[in-house]
UniProtKB/TrEMBL annotation:
Domain (Glycoside-hydrolase family GH114 TIM-barrel) ranges: 51-276
InterPro entries: Aldolase_TIM, GH, GH114_TIM-barrel
Taxonomic path: Eukaryota, Fungi, Fungi incertae sedis, Chytridiomycota, Chytridiomycota incertae sedis
Pfam (any one): Glyco_hydro_114
Gene3D superfamilies for the chain: Aldolase class I
Top EC class for this record: hydrolase
Bilayer-crossing regions: 6-28
Species for this entry: Anaeromyces robustus
UniProt GO molecular function: alpha-galactosidase activity
Protein name from the UniProt record: alpha-galactosidase
Length: 324
């Protein structure tokens, strides 16, 4: 009996090795294809130091935002607004979820037509996980990429590409594995690049080193809070921007000191947003290499667009910023 058990363990071990080799071969093959594709299609890749703002809860976006990139909601902002923003010199990243079902989206009914595609409710958001291994999901997502192209987006922010980490997903009869996630991610990058769109890696910091070659930039929330920002070095080394959002009160010195300590020298494009995580237009640029608490708290480095503003109104009272 012990011999049989040992044999099974050895067999499983070698199967895992073969699977890993096959996955790495797939990644390598896709790298070669991506390199060839990018040489013939002009895909925008934001470089290290590119400035940005993240505005997912506003349809009326000011065109004079003093940043290079505006990250906006694919469905909430129309093509006319996107064109206006691009004419002002902004590159536009369009956000949509690729790992969850949102019942308020115009294509929500398409998800419900597929048996067992929509699964458990998320722990913190009014969304449901979806089975990313279901082949009928891809046509739905392909239409979203088409919409992004039609509206004039330059890049894509694909949210929820880390559902394999969810405790609820891990309890599925057939849970999503990290291999499933990486395979889906590669498909997403292909869909974007075939349309001439760049695509960013949203969070999933555990796989940043593996996927930096395929994604064109990264978007992270709060890597500083867990001292994980160094995981994005592969992106930085390839001169790909890492857009970083921090949530907090800009007169909270403990928060700012921690943000500085864990991001200094890492070349991240950092903005501070309201601590309630409402991604409205107000934001604060944060440069850890030139950090001055008094200047930030007093509002001298706070902006809604191209004007300096009163910082305390953003973070403490959630009011519209006032010019100073």
């Amino acid at each position: 009996m012990n011999t049989v058990f040992l044999f099974l363990l050895i067999f499983i071990y070698f199967i895992n090795i073969i699977y890993t080799i096959n996955l790495n071969y797939t990644l390598l093959s896709n790298t070669k294809q991506k390199t060839k594709r990018n040489s013939s299609i002009n895909i925008w890749i934001p470089s290290v130091g590119t400035t940005w703002n993240w505005i997912l809860n506003s349809e009326d976006i000011e065109s004079d935002n003093n940043v290079d990139v505006l990250d906006i909601d694919l469905f909430d902002v129309d093509a006319k607004t996107i064109n206006k923003l691009k004419n002002k010199g902004h590159h536009i990243i369009c956000y949509f979820s690729v790992g969850t079902y949102e019942k308020w989206r115009p294509d929500a009914s398409e998800f419900l037509k597929v048996d067992n595609l929509v699964r458990d409710k998320m722990e913190e958001w009014n969304e449901n996980y979806i089975d990313i291994t279901n082949p009928y999901l891809k046509p739905i997502m392909s239409k979203r990429f088409d919409l992004a192209k039609e509206k004039g987006c330059d890049g894509i922010e694909p949210d929820n590409i880390d559902i394999y980490l969810s405790k609820k997903v891990k309890k599925w009869k057939i849970p999503i594995t990290v291999e499933d996630q990486l395979s889906y991610d590669l498909w997403l990058t292909t869909e974007a690049h075939q349309r001439g769109l760049s695509i960013g890696m949203k969070n999933d910091i555990e796989n940043a080193s593996k996927m930096a070659t395929y994604f064109d930039f990264a978007i992270n929330e709060e890597c500083y809070d867990y001292d994980e920002c160094s995981n994005y070095e592969p992106f930085i080394n390839m001169n790909k921007a890492v857009f970083t959002a921090a949530y907090g009160d800009c007169c909270d010195k403990k928060f700012l000191d921690k943000l500085e300590k864990n991001t200094k020298g890492k070349n991240l494009s950092i903005i501070i947003k309201n601590e309630d995580q409402e991604l409205v237009e107000d934001y604060v640029k944060f440069d850890p290499d030139n950090y001055d608490y008094d200047e930030i708290c007093n509002g001298k480095k706070t902006t809604t667009d191209s004007t300096d503003s009163s910082l305390k109104n953003i973070m403490k009272y959630d009011l519209k910023l006032e010019n100073v």
